[in-house]
Design a protein that fits this description.
Blueprint lengths: L1 H10 L1 H16 L7 H10 L2 H10 L8 E5 L11 E5 H13 L3 H5 L4
Length: about 110
C-alpha cells in the first residue's frame, strides 16, 4: 500500500503542487496564470526527474522532496521567478531571508 501511495504522489506531483501554488497566490493577493500543462513542461525542463530520484533514494525524506521556490518572494509564480530545489533548500532559504527560524526549531516543534 505504501508503495502505491508513493507512485501516486509522483504521478500527481505537478497537479498537487500547482494547486498549492494557486492557493498560496490567492492568499497573497497575487495572480497565477500557469496552466498544468505549462507547469509539467517546466518541471521536466528543470531537473524534476533527478530531484525525484534523489527523494526516492533518501527513503522519501521530506527534506529531500522537490519544491518550487520563488526567487523573489515579493513576486508571484512566474517562470522567470521560479526555481526547483529540495524542500530543505527552500526551507533554509526562507529561514535565512526572513523568518529567523532554523530547521532544528522546526524539527523540535518550536514552529
Amino acid at each position: 500500500m505504501e508503495e502505491l501511495k508513493k507512485i501516486y504522489i509522483k504521478k500527481h506531483f505537478a497537479r498537487l503542487s500547482r494547486n498549492n501554488m494557486v492557493r498560496r497566490s490567492r492568499k497573497r493577493g497575487m495572480e497565477f496564470n500557469i496552466s498544468l500543462k505549462e507547469f509539467k513542461k517546466w518541471l521536466s525542463e528543470n531537473n524534476f526527474d533527478k530531484l525525484w530520484r534523489d527523494y526516492e533514494n533518501s527513503g522519501f525524506d521530506k527534506w529531500m522532496k522537490p519544491s518550487v521556490d520563488r526567487t523573489d518572494s515579493s513576486i508571484g509564480y512566474i517562470f522567470s521567478n521560479m526555481k526547483l530545489m529540495t524542500w530543505n533548500e527552500n526551507f533554509e532559504k526562507g529561514c535565512s531571508e526572513n523568518t529567523g527560524m532554523c530547521k532544528a526549531q522546526f524539527v523540535s516543534g518550536k514552529r
